Amino acid sequence: MVEFFLQSPDLVIFLVLLALGYAAGSLAEKRHYKSIEKRERELVRLAVVTAEGSFPPGRVRQAFLVSGSTVVSIDYFKRLLAILRNIFGGRVKAYESLVDRARREAILRMKAEAQQRGAGMILNLRLETATIGRNANRKNQVGSVEAIAYGTAIVFNK
Amino acid sequence: MKFTPRLPDENVNVSRTHPLAELAWLLGGLLLLCLLVFGGLGLAVDLTVDHLPTRVENWLGDYARRQFPARESAPLQRRLDALTAVLPPGSPLRDRIFRVRLSSDPRVNAVALPGNTIVIFSGLLDAVTSENELSMVLAHELGHFAHRDHLRQLGRGLVITAVAALLFGERSGVTELASDLFLTWQASYSRRQEAAADAYALELLVARYGQAAGATDLFARLAAKKGRRPSRLLASHPYPEKRIELLRQLIEQRGFPIAERTPLGDDLRRLSAEEAGKGE
């Protein structure tokens, strides 16, 4: 058995990368979700809506664009799951959490910017996602997902 | 409408399946798929191999020869010609012209390639000590030709590589891994095929020399020094002790005489020394 592994370094590298991807990926995801949830609680009072708003004259002091973007990388383990999923079809569960994290992080950054500049509300939230990175469009490479959130921040008159 | 800030109770956007459980399901499914494809196509290969036209075999041979760079060698060819001359009159191998080539590979191994080519690795040339041993190896490979084992093995390896290429793409790491792994496993013949080739080789050896000396020498020597350096001939051909035992039984059953071994000819010794010099 040991001999077999020694004779196939490709397989050993593959397994090591897989274990590394799983361990590091899971840890990073856990910590990221913890931080996301904490900040979401902190920023929950800042309203974000997708509707276009209209306010009575004199209510709005300032309106400006705020945006937040984030890039999250796919780990080796998730990529393997996605490759296998490509064979059978169905929901690519490995990527769902990735995109979820990217979107929520982007919204949080957008909200952080709005809060910093004294906004009380964000109108007309928009979300975009894209694959990104040197290897985004190349096969066999680990890519990343980018999410960008933008909207109109409103500063109200007191 | 009044806006009430509130966090959602649960996240519906992420599936709750544990990633390792998903991996297990997907791998299980893939394994099942592979078994079905491998079994099914393997069976198809077994059925078609017996009816494969010579033209196709020659084309496969050209492809296989590129994987094993080797050169022609007159001393080895003379040994092979002496063997093919004593093939039984009814043998289908009589209609074919066999070539033997020498590869500068230090492993102790020999392979039968499609297109009537036998490749002897220089490591094997270094390991043999008598004409009889070398003839036994050549006859063994001829046995694989007689039973068309060489095509069976190549067929399965090709099937697996083709399937991996379909699933993962031609230049994917997974495909390369699959083809490497399966071709390595597939390069070994099954024990049943090995035993059949051994029996064939023994008959031919006796037809050539009139006696069975040297039939088991090489295996015995390799088995004895197995612990020191794992040889490829043993790794791909399991249970050398069992093979030796089987050959001894056959010799006894058929009453083949065992006499003196013919020492290695000068031309072969020179060839072996040349190869050894190259390797340094």
From TrEMBL, chain B:
Q: Which domain of life is it from?
A: Bacteria
InterPro entries recorded: Mito/Outer_Membr_Metalloprot, Peptidase_M48
The GO biological-process annotations, alphabetized, read as: proteolysis involved in protein catabolic process
Q: Which GO terms describe its molecular function?
A: metal ion binding; metalloendopeptidase activity
* Record's keyword terms, sorted: Hydrolase, Membrane, Metal-binding, Metalloprotease, Protease, Transmembrane, Transmembrane helix, Zinc
Name the Gene3D superfamilies for this protein. Answer: Metalloproteases ('zincins'), catalytic domain (3.30.2010.10)
Q: Which residues form the Peptidase M48 domain?
A: 92-249
On cofactor binding, the record's note says: Binds 1 zinc ion per subunit.
GO CC, sorted alphabetically, is:
membrane
Q: Which residues cross the membrane?
A: 23-45
Q: Name one Pfam family in it.
A: Peptidase_M48
- Which cofactor is essential here? Zn(2+)
Q: Which family does it belong to?
A: Belongs to the peptidase M48 family.
Q: Know the name of this protein?
A: Peptidase M48 domain-containing protein
Origin species, per record, is: Geothermobacter hydrogeniphilus
